[in-house]
Amino acid sequence: MSLLDVRNLTVTYPGGAAAVRGVDLRLDAGRKLGLAGESGCGKSTLALALLRLLPSGTRVTGEVLLDGEDVLTMKWGRVRAVRWAGASVVFQGAMHSLNAVHRIGDQIAEPILLHRKATPAGAKKKTGELLEQVGLPAARADAYPHELSGGQRQRVMIAMALACDPRLIIADEPTTALDVMIQAQILRLIEQLVADQDLGLIMISHDLAVLADTCDRLAVMYAGRVVEEGPARQVYEDARHPYARALSAAFPRIGDPASRFAPQGLAGDPPDPAALPSGCTFHPRCPVALETCPEEDPALRAAGPERRAACVLVGPRPDEGPSAETPAAQGDRPAEDPEALEEARPSTP
Ligand SMILES: Nc1ncnc2c1ncn2[C@@H]1O[C@H](COP(=O)(O)OP(=O)(O)OP(=O)(O)O)[C@@H](O)[C@H]1O
Ligand SMILES: [Mg+2]
């Protein structure tokens, strides 16, 4: 059984914005899944939906199986327990949400006292251990947030997320707003923690390069849907879906000087989730759209071993042999002529 198995997850905000549409994801313990896509494509909404943190009135359907238990149908008492001990989130911009008037040690200890029913002495000891785990001296427990740098505060947020020994960490843009050196340190720290504790990790970013470097698998979202999913390096270096290709081409490659001079911008804006285009929602911006694309919204289908993409032009390449079909891909139409996409692929990079 997977640590996390998300099935057909759909989220519609009260105003009618379909922010997440029929997403399937799976994650095993010790594995790292990256979630990428332009601003507004639904990454944070998806993360919040996993732990039922969305505003009331939001319609959420599908299944979120955490160790086989559906978070979406749990009683609230159970959801609260799961939020700390099952899966915890390091939120986007979280380092600004520490309470300015409390010592950081007390803020880390709070969930340990509450959810672990620890004694004050036990919680203090655990807090010191957590701080050391994230590379801060235990004595920093006495500091107030303003006495720490941005990077140190983000370490505190990670310590807080680890407080009740979760099985899954969801990190939503954990390094945005940090400088490149600190960003690298925090990413290495997260990787180390995941490896040492056999956690599952979902890392959200619009930066494909960071995700390709950190994660095992990568899912690219567009307008609330996963449009491509597969081994992280392969998706980054050789994306199949035209949107994922455009996104990855927007990042210069280390060791490939040509890519620095050929940033592939994508014309147009992402669609309004309350008024999505018909058919494939990417068709108005797609450089290789066919006449039929405004009518047909393709499901994710096999695009090579362990790879899936949602584009009518995508199928396994002739040299890749039989594809490892995933359950979500089963039942899809057989892949269409792979040569068609080869011809239609943009020439760079
Ligand atoms: N509370 C809300 N009510 C209505 N619509 C919302 C709400 N929160 C987000 N949305 C809309 O849902 C869509 C997805 O937003 P979301 O924050 O999940 O995107 P994101 O991929 O995390 O973007 P970013 O990279 O900027 O963080 C956007 O169009 C956004 O405007
Ligand atoms: Mg977000």
UniProtKB/TrEMBL annotation:
PROSITE patterns: ABC_TRANSPORTER_1, ABC_TRANSPORTER_2. It is a peripheral membrane protein. The keyword 4Fe-4S does not apply. It is found in: Cell membrane. Residues 311-349 are annotated as: Disordered. Residues 4-248 form the ABC transporter domain. GO terms for molecular function: ATP binding. Keywords: ATP-binding, Cell membrane, Membrane, Nucleotide-binding, Transport. Its main location: membrane. Pfam families: ABC_tran, oligo_HPY. The keyword Transport applies. InterPro entries: AAA+_ATPase (IPR003593), ABC_Ni/Peptide_Import (IPR050388), ABC_transporter-like_ATP-bd (IPR003439), ABC_transporter-like_CS (IPR017871), Oligopep_ABC_C (IPR013563), P-loop_NTPase (IPR027417). Coiled coil: none annotated. Belongs to the ABC transporter superfamily. This is Dipeptide/oligopeptide/nickel ABC transporter ATP-binding protein. It comes from Streptomyces lomondensis.
